[in-house]
From TrEMBL:
SUPFAM superfamilies: NAD(P)-binding Rossmann-fold domains (SSF51735). It comes from Ridgeia piscesae (Tubeworm). One of its GO terms (molecular function) is L-xylulose reductase (NADPH) activity. This is L-xylulose reductase. Homotetramer. One of its GO terms (biological process) is glucose metabolic process. Belongs to the short-chain dehydrogenases/reductases (SDR) family. Keywords: NADP, Oxidoreductase. Pfam families: adh_short.
Amino acid sequence: MDIRFDGRRALVTGAGKGIGYELAKALAAGGAETFALSRTQADLDQLKAENPDIRTVCVDLADWAATRKAVEELGPIHLLVNNAAVLHCTTFMEIEEAEIKNTFDVNVHAVVNVSQVVAQGMIARGKGGAIVNMSSIGGRVALENVPSYCASKGAIEMLTKVMTRELGQHQIRINNVNPTVVMTAMGKKLWSDPAKSEPMMKRTPQRKFAEVKDVVHAVMFLLSDQSDMINGASLFVDGGVTAV
Ligand code: NDP
């Protein structure tokens, strides 16, 4: 994608696999000094082997204090993508405390934690910045068997709006990206069974799921100056499946 981020410093969470992994590579290729954060060192080592310019941070986002310290140590960040998330497959009646706690710790609380540290620096420097929160079609549409995940993404939708209201005066833009199914490790966990994926595909006007690159392109656009007046938006990368 022909978008450059030279002179900017970018942080991507959940960059050890899937969308975050490719996003970190794309941002680095676009000239950003890129920090890839995840919790499995082997994944980060692999990313670093592919692009030695990428700097890696190994921390569990569910650990508030360790995460805060790790992000504070990075110095100025101009572009942030809160991409990491976990997904537990249960019914609503099966949700246990550990599941809902872990889901909200990683998918919501960590977004608050990391964004506070990054936004604090953006405010102090007075030059604005861009944040993308990775939501999902599940932030707007109730998907079966992932109740805590959908609730967490619904929380992200509103979190983005309140962040926009408060931080816009500092020229900090915050937007959501809402992908449909992408066959990453997370996507396969939920959609590998054709009995589930085929009806979903049939309901999708374009009759296909998203590729990682489709999501990466949407994020890159929202991080770039080309989307300068887009703030508090949710950009659906879903082939029209949520169109009503
Ligand atoms: P993956 O499961 O493929 O990758 C998620 C990454 O986040 C992994 O590197 C994982 O590390 C990391 N991560 C998870 N928990 C933590 C944690 N506690 N601390 C640090 N890192 C963590 O997911 P995707 O790439 O598919 O998803 C990326 C984003 O896109 C998510 O926000 C997801 O909700 C969203 N999305 C995905 C869709 C899909 O169909 N794939 C559809 C809609 C939205 P590790 O593996 O070591 O746990």
